[in-house]
Design brief:
Elements: E1 4-9, H1 16-29, E2 34-38, H2 44-54, H3 63-87, E3 91-95, H4 98-108, H5 113-123, E4 131-136, H6 139-145, H7 159-175, E5 180-184, H8 189-207
Parallel strand pairs: 1-3, 1-4, 2-3, 4-5
The structure holds thymidine-5'-diphosphate.
């Protein structure tokens, strides 16, 4: 694969979406072909699945149903958008990917991280990111950054759920420290942006992209 695959992960209110956008904007400015996308969503089918997943009215959704919907969205995304872009040699930046399911459904919903990892493999043709940024913040800080009026179905979950999600993410980062880069999400936005840019530049250099 000629392209470069970069993902952002973290609990709600961590600032990962902002960092994903800042990175994509920076790459564009430098004339490096890139796409920014998100999960759940990213395709027409995926965005329809997203609205089912986040609808607060769907409070009766079983945890397994939830898992399969996230995986369905991901499968469509990978095959319709991510793999083609990587084949064209682009940088693909995703706001959430496979680790979200391991942390939220495996850890948060307690369906088991191993099971979710196996299903992820099936849904992604075993496609792994070249680099994943885990923007970590304590759950309480993340929640304070969100406005209560706008909470979606998952954001309405109790604090203990989000603590399990965070701990699951941190375990993954400890297991794969080379690929999963842990960032302190309580730092100022500009500082994080610079850290991300430095690590991405190193990766691009290694891959022979953006050299000028
Ligand atoms: P997102 O729009 O990224 O929410 P935010 O960035 O505001 O936290 O994701 C929507 C929700 O979906 C979020 O609560 C995390 C959850 N999620 C899962 O539970 N499993 C998954 O596999 C993914 C991709 C997201």
């Amino acid at each position: 694969m000629r392209g470069v695959f970069i993902t952002f992960e973290g609990v709600e209110g961590s600032g990962k979406s902002t960092q994903a956008k800042l990175l994509a904007r920076n790459l564009e400015r430098r004339g490096i072909g890139c796409i920014l996308s998100r999960e759940p969503g990213g395709t027409g089918i995926g965005e329809s699945i997203r609205s089912v997943l986040l609808d607060p009215d769907n409070s009766s959704m079983d945890a397994r149903t939830e898992l399969f919907l996230y995986l369905a969205s991901r499968n469509q995304h990978v095959r319709e958008k991510v793999l083609p872009a990587l084949r064209e040699g682009r940088v693909v930046v995703l706001d959430r990917y496979a680790e979200s399911s391991v942390a939220y459904q495996g850890g948060g919903r307690e369906l088991g991280e191993k099971l979710v990892s196996r299903l992820n493999k099936f849904a992604t043709a075993a496609l792994k990111p070249d680099m994943t940024f885990l923007v970590d913040v304590p759950v309480a800080i993340g929640r304070r950054r969100k406005r209560t009026a706008e909470l979606d179905r998952l954001e309405q979950e109790r604090v203990e759920f989000h603590e399990r999600v965070r701990n699951s993410y941190l375990r993954m980062a400890r297991r794969a420290p080379k690929r999963i880069r842990l960032l302190d999400g309580t730092k100022p936005e500009e500082e994080l942006e610079a850290e991300v840019r430095n690590m991405v530049d190193e990766l691009l250099l290694k891959k022979g992209i953006g050299r000028r």
